[in-house]
Amino acid sequence: MAVQTYSMRTDANTNVSEHFKVREFACNDGSDTVLIDDDLVTRLERIRGVFGSGITITSGYRTPSYNAAVGGATSSQHVKGTAADIQLRGVPPLAVANYVEETFSTGGIGVYGTFTHVDVRSSRVIWKNNGSNTSSTTGASEGYWKDFKNGADPGGGGEGGGGESGAIDVTVRRFTVVFKRPNGKTYTATYFPSYCNGWWYFNDSEFYRCDDILGNYQQYFKAGYWAHITHIQNITASNIHLTGGSDG
After folding, report:
1. Average pLDDT over the chain, rounded to whole?
2. What is the number of other CB atoms lying within 10 angstroms of the CB of residue 181?
3. Residue 183: helix, strand or coil by DSSP?
4. Tens digit of pLDDT for each residue in 114-130?
5. DSSP 159
């Protein structure tokens, strides 16, 4: 098995397995290139099958620049195309992590509040909430995942890719950001941020971040550093419920 290289321009709707398409692994910065490891796809299909639940990939492949902008580790598995952050409707992240822990002897497992990080590195690494908080175990009781086996809403793509639409319900964070232009006028924009190591990240043509309490506004500059900015006036957050958007 190996890492495959795809183009969003030509391959976005190409099936990489029975239930997953290239576009589901695409970098959140809109880049054309998508790297996807065959073993990762196989592992995700195993997870999907045992829980009977569609999978939403919240972060798959990351370009090096996007990974740096969101505070990812330099050697992140996402940059290699060997990792995915996933959500399964009706299944707690800890249950997913526990299943991976008890089923596969290698790979990275990250347990977060709303998603599970899964990667197919050759070693075993487990952490909770951030990559520096490593542990020898997920902390779940033996067989915890079995309480959720085949008990979730199937959602996701139909059998053989020809069933119902890939509808999965997900609650996501939404930011409403007020910017101030150089002429003093303000404008408002909406973002769906990602969270990593104490920071909320969001981007359009530029990369921004704020801290846990929605303060300390910073912008990422191409020279490779974050700097405080004053043209963000205010950020408010809300949770919204989305249906659909993933065939996984």
Report:
1. 84
2. 9
3. coil
4. 899 999 999 999 998 87
5. G
